[in-house]
């Protein structure tokens, strides 16, 4: 059965693209037919280029990222500046069309879960419409527990119950970094994984040479591999 994993975050800049590229490269290595899409972005296409590389250039850039806007703003505002209009039906049609030949589809959102992507829709709406399993990415620092709980609460109940969480270590850990995962466990938040800081010059291939990273990828994708 085709699976769709939706990589969202508690905010922008928390590591969604790092995780999506790791998942894509890991599955590609396993021989899984995997697509990684970032349908909407603003302020540059660097994230989409990272995904393209992680897939071994098996998808064209415009298939990975068909809607891109110049201004570094929420996509709905960046689109308005260019006098463009993006609706959810169009985005869903693209994801479903591109995803047809693949066993696993990774979809990366833009910004946080409720950041507006187009006319009256956000990543939460895409998760619901695609019946996708959410993976919530968050920076493992002080305040993240509140951000994760709010993001979980905002998800539809069915998606919330299937959600997985990835705490990404910051470059400079703070007093909460070592304890956030344990606190989430005490609060009955399940399926929490942690990833270490992977460096300023991130490489999915280099990261996947580390057993710790491979273990996390296996945990996140276990139900997605036939």
Order of helices and strands: EHEEHHEHHEEEHEHHEHEHH
Mean pLDDT: 95
- CATH class, please? Alpha Beta
The biggest beta sheet is recorded as: 6 strands, parallel
General shape: globular
Amount of beta strand: 15-25%
How would you characterize this protein structure?
The chain is an alpha/beta fold. The protein has a single domain (3-224), classed as Rossmann fold (3-Layer(aba) Sandwich), CATH 3.40.50. Helix content is 41%, strand content 19%. The protein has helices at 16-29, 46-54, 61-64, 75-81, 88-99, 123-130, 144-154, 157-162, 180-186, 204-207, 211-221, and strands spanning 3-9, 34-37, 40-42, 67-69, 104-108, 116-118, 121-122, 133-139, 164-168, 192-195. Strands 2-5-1-8-9-10 form a 6-stranded parallel sheet, with helices on both faces. Helix 1 (16-29) packs parallel to helix 2 and helix 1 packs across helix 11 (211-221).
């Amino acid at each position: 059965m085709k699976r769709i994993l939706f990589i969202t975050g508690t905010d922008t800049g928390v590591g969604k693209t790092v995780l999506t590229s790791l998942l894509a490269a890991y599955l590609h290595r396993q021989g899984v037919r995997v697509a990684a899409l970032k349908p909407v972005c603003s302020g540059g296409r660097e994230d989409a280029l990272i995904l393209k590389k992680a897939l071994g250039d098996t998808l064209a850039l415009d298939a990975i990222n068909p809607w891109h806007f110049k201004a570094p703003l929420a996509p709905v505002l960046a689109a308005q500046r260019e006098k463009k209009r993006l609706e959810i039906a169009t985005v869903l049609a693209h994801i479903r069309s591109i995803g047809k030949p693949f066993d696993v589809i990774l979809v990366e959102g833009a910004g946080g879960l409720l950041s507006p992507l187009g006319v009256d829709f956000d990543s939460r709406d895409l998760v619901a419409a695609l019946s996708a399993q959410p993976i919530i990415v968050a920076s493992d620092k002080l305040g993240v527990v509140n951000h994760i709980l709010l993001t979980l609460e905002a998800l539809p109940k069915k998606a919330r119950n299937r959600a997985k969480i990835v705490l990404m270590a910051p470059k400079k850990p703070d007093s909460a970094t070592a304890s956030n995962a344990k606190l989430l466990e005490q609060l009955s938040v399940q399926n929490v994984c942690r990833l270490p800081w992977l460096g300023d010059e991130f490489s999915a291939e280099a990261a996947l040479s580390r057993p710790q990273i491979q273990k996390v990828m296996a945990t996140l994708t276990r139900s997605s591999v036939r």
